[in-house]
Amino acid sequence: MSLHSLGGAASPGPAARAAGTAAARALTRVWLFVVLFLIWWFWSAGSKSLYFPPLSSILKALWTQWVTGPARAELGSSLEHLVVGYVIAGLVGIGIGALLWSLRYLRDATSPYIYFLYVLPAPVLVPAAMTLFGIGFTMKVVLIAFAALWPTLLNTLDGMRGVDQVKLDTSRVLGVSPLGSVFRVVLPAAAPQIVAGLRNSLQVAIILMVVSEWEASSDGIGYYIVNAQQSFDYVGMWSGIIVLAIIGTVANVLFVIAENRALHWHYGARAVEGTR
Amino acid sequence: MNEVKPEVTTAEDEAAGVPVVSLRQVRKVYPGAAGPKVALQDITFDVARGEFACVVGPSGAGKTTLLRILAGLAQPTSGAALFEGTPLRSVPPGIGVVFQDYGRSLYPWLTVARNVELPLRVRGLQRTERAQRVAEVLASVGLPDAGRSYPWQLSGGMQQRVAIARSLAYRPDLLLMDEPFASVDAQTRFELEDLILRVRQEFGVTVVFVTHDIDEAVYLADRVIAVSKSPGVVTEIVDITLTRPRDQIATKADPAFARYREHLLGMVMKR
Predict the structure, then answer these.
(1) What is the ipTM of this complex?
(2) What is the pLDDT of residues B149-180, one digit of tens each?
(3) How many angstroms separate the CA of residue B101 from the nearest CA in chain A?
(4) Does B61 touch chain A (CB under 8 A)?
(5) Residue B152 sits at the chain A interface (C-beta within 8 Å)
(6) Can you tell me the distance from the alpha carbon of B148 to that of A13, in angstroms, rounded to the nearest whole number?
(7) Domains and CATH numbers, chain B
(8) How far is CA B136 from CA A173, A240, B143, B153, in A?
């Protein structure tokens, strides 16, 4: 490939075709949602059942409760737990992963326990966390951070162990210090795997955000949903579930945007490899 | 090979008397599951300042091990490896290495310019000087406009040029090259051979070039050091007195070229 072919202007033909396929792809992703939405809307319209409220009233509750109403505070408190817990999980996961990578003895000594903790379903720790930290902010953040830690930690360790020896030799030859090479070579080289770990951690963090609010909590989306269900407010319960789905979706979209920015070189290189 | 010039008066001349590379009975043994494996049995040679030395030998002759020892990346089991008179215990700042596999050696997350800049950055050079040096070495290897590209956007030959530029950016005294042109096509290979002869002149760098290709070794070298396969020993050192500058067509048509080639090939085949 020559340098000149990289940024060359495409002729209108392929560009128009690309726009066409992009529209077709968007349509593929949207039509099913529209169909399901309409089915739910018309099927539930006029429903008198307490357990199966009309979609129109759920959406109204979504607006009056979560956008303009009192549930905004629950949303804010849940998101606060999620963000703080997840950031701690990410930083500690990468930090401990890097430490275990650099200290072989520590790695060998701790590896059975790390897998033991990794396979432990984190929701069962809710009662223990309540005993230790009460039912407030600390308990939720600790629980989210603890549960979300493992995927990032293990992927960091794995990614760093897989860094090509030639890349490490090169950094020594270029005069990069051992600590410098961790930041300049090992972390970027392991970044694709670390990011995959962070993505799993995000999902675990969202689950634990809700689960930590189910029991003996006085705030949060999880608390709101359980409370609504127990007081026969099924409209409110459904609106909370939809809010959770939206949070999950938005968090994932933000993650993918950040990932594509941070790892654009990785996807670029992989695409080139595929064509060679 | 290691002549002391008659007018040894200045410090620079004094330095010129000390070989850049000095190997003395270097032996390298790797522990293995099926008993220890001798990669290098007994390697002794010097490389003088400004010299272009080619180490040639078949696959499995421990050439890469030898290069790692010369770079300070590996220690000999016994014997001594010296760089400018000092034993190599780690990688000294005055050595540049070009590895065979540019795809593994260049950092894909950095642009070409940032790759070349990395050794200058860790040496604490100021921004303007870094930019100037990067532009200078990229121009020297014929890639003046590639700085903003990523390595993986370039062809194989261009990537190896970037690797060469990066190892020259900090102006090393010694450039080590481990079969650097083994993974590019023949045409590109000839271009890169001429490129390395030119930049070696331009930067006044001593070169140790490892290859399995006898033609390449004879074409490039002032001296060819032939090593044999398991165990690795130096079988012969041949001075190449072909005229410089060398030319892909004229030099290779020279009857002397054919004689060197025949001699070295015969020796390698006999083993």
Answers:
(1) 0.88
(2) 999 999 999 999 999 999 999 999 999 999 99
(3) 8
(4) no
(5) yes
(6) 29
(7) 18-94+172-270 (3.40.50.300), 102-171 (no CATH)
(8) 21, 62, 10, 21
